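TODO from last week: model Alpha/beta hydrolase.
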Amino acid sequence: MEPSALPHPIRRRRPEGSTIDHWHAPDGWPIRRFDWPAVGQARGALLFLGGRGDIFEKHLEAFAHWQTRGWSVTAFDWRGHGGSGRLTADGTVGHLDSFTSLIDDLAAFWRDWTAPAPRVAMGHSMGGNVLAHALLSGRIMAAGAVLLSPMVRIRSPLGAGISERIARWQCRRADPGRAAWTAKAGDAARADAEAMLTADYGRLLDEHWWHERMPGLRLGPPSWGWLAAAFASGRALETLARTAPALDLSVLLLAADDDRLTDTRASRRFAQARGEIVLHRFPHGVGHELLREIDPVRDRALATIDRLLDDVAARYQ
């Protein structure tokens, strides 16, 4: 793995001028949020939605890039993730009965979010799935959107259909909130799992650094219920891609051909079914976390996103 330049203070400290607080969903659930206003007159605002198991601290480096370019940045930990409270007694297991609760949380947050226009939404992995649902179903109205390695489908050697049936059977036979697998022990297993995310070892160490200091924010394997919900959400999203009306906004979809966590072929089909989506593919050797990859990959991803942001800001003027 190639290390990024270290030390890199912005990745391991909360930025000056930013705040961390809690927003409460309509049912009262506390959602940990991050806000970093632009200095001076903002060009607009970004809402960043992370993936399964993410905490927003993972993405401070990207947030700093956009904030210095004049954008206010907001992010939050999903229900059941990070500092937003867990949904099972075993807090290390990531559980959901349905992605509907996440879509509802996003729609409610978007309504309550007081931020300078234009407002752009970005979703990584699971966050991309939820964001795409919210956009195509009309639950949120954004000036632009970015889907980063979106979890249209989970990558599975058995295929989505068989894998979903297995997950549903496991939910019926015992507690759906139990872990779907046990994390493999050993340095080799850990290195292989991390290689799925990024080839940049320095950025991987940043995530460990945050977890060591805030162990309560770490999330382990998903539950069988989460897996069943994720496959069902993917099926519903593919149906929406074919049936939902055209969106009056520009949408970028960035995907790595060798992504080992999401099915990039499904993401490409999703993009091709939608006239408003522009697909950008990343070649062999690129991992799942495009904004935390080695600098040449990360810089290309940021430059692609910046062009969208520039266009959105120019149209709003």
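Done. The first strand starts at residue 19 and ends at 24.
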